[in-house]
């Protein structure tokens, strides 16, 4: 059984269908990359998995439990599925360490003293030990995004979702954030990424899914999808993006 399973997931905004019957399996420890043009439905799909959007139809299973069931407490699900966004969304009046400890203190009821060693270890693992007590405006964009990742990991999630997390960064800062994702992959974290970083998807993903008009048009191992895409839509997209 896959760690995460989507079956026929549909999401509409008014008359617009943004996710149109999406099926997807994500195995334990897999990194799955979602690629496709802006507006293809990648970000909305991640938001549906994290229950930030309510699906109109379909099922989303986490360890066999349908988390898209009406009435299910979304907070209990979000404690198990972390999400990092394009914008860092750090509280400017809190230090990096305070930002990272806020959610686990509130959700899990842990004290600051109980949390500190674990969260400080996360900062050290991601090269931020000397930045824990800085405020967001004292950090580079890449450092802020790494703090946002540490903040999500402080909740001890079972699955991590990343929504175009390098798109707001200067090109020279992208690599340091992608290195964090590679480290998480080596540690066995289950991840789903929406990304425009084709080279990274090709190098690091276990599976790549090409989305268009709210549907997964084609999916498979990165070598197969990038080297020999079967669908003309995938071929056209890659021809534009890999110039």
End-to-end Cα distance, whole Å, is: 38 Å
Widest sheet, order of strands:
6-7-8-3-9-10
Predict the CATH topology of the largest domain.
Answer: Rossmann fold
Order of helices and strands: EEEHEEHEHHHEHEHEEHH
How would you name the oligomeric state of the polypeptide chains in this document?
single chain
Concise structural overview:
By secondary structure, the chain is of the alpha/beta class. It has helices spanning 42-49, 74-78, 96-108, 112-125, 141-153, 171-186, 198-204, 222-227, 232-241; strands at 4-13, 16-26, 31-35, 57-62, 65-66, 81-84, 159-163, 190-194, 207-212, 215-220.
SSE arrangement:
Blueprint: E1 4-13, E2 16-26, E3 31-35, H1 42-49, E4 57-62, E5 65-66, H2 74-78, E6 81-84, H3 96-108, H4 112-125, H5 141-153, E7 159-163, H6 171-186, E8 190-194, H7 198-204, E9 207-212, E10 215-220, H8 222-227, H9 232-241
Parallel strand pairs: 3-8, 3-9, 6-7, 7-8
Antiparallel strand pairs: 1-2, 1-4, 4-5, 9-10
Task: Tell me about this structure.
The protein has two domains: 4-80 and 158-241, P-loop containing nucleotide triphosphate hydrolases (Rossmann fold, 3-Layer(aba) Sandwich), CATH 3.40.50.300; 93-156, no CATH class. Strand 1 and strand 2 (16-26) form a beta hairpin. The model has no long low-confidence stretch (mean pLDDT 93). The strands form two sheets. It has a six-stranded mixed β-sheet with strand order 6-7-8-3-9-10, with helices on both faces. The chain has a four-stranded antiparallel β-sheet with strand order 2-1-4-5, with helices on one face. It is built from nine helices and ten strands. Helix 3 packs parallel to helix 5 and helix 5 packs parallel to helix 6. The protein is an alpha/beta fold and 243 residues long. The chain is globular and about 55 Å long.
């Amino acid at each position: 059984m896959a760690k995460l399973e989507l079956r026929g997931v549909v999401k509409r905004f008014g008359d617009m269908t943004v996710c149109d019957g999406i099926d997807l399996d994500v195995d334990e420890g897999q990194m799955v990359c979602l690629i496709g043009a802006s507006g293809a439905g990648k970000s909305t799909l991640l938001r549906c998995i994290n229950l930030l959007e309510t699906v109109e139809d379909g099922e989303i299973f986490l360890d066999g439990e349908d988390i898209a069931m009406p009435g299910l407490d979304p907070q209990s699900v979000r404690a198990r599925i972390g999400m990092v966004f394009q914008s860092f969304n750090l509280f400017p009046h809190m230090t990096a360490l305070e930002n990272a400890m806020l959610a686990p203190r509130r959700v899990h009821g842990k004290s600051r003293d109980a949390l500190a060693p674990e969260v400080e270890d996360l900062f050290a693992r991601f090269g931020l030990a000397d930045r824990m007590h800085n405020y967001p405006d004292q950090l580079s964009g890449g450092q802020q995004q790494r703090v946002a990742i540490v903040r999500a990991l402080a909740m001890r999630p079972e699955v991590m979702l990343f929504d175009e997390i390098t798109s707001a960064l200067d090109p020279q800062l992208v690599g340091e954030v992608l290195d964090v994702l590679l480290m998480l992959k080596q540690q066995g974290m289950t991840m789903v990424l929406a990304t425009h970083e084709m080279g990274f998807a090709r190098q690091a993903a276990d599976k790549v899914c090409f989305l268009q008009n709210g549907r997964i048009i084609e999916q498979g191992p990165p070598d197969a999808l990038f080297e020999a895409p079967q669908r003309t839509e995938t071929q056209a997209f890659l021809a534009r993006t890999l110039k």
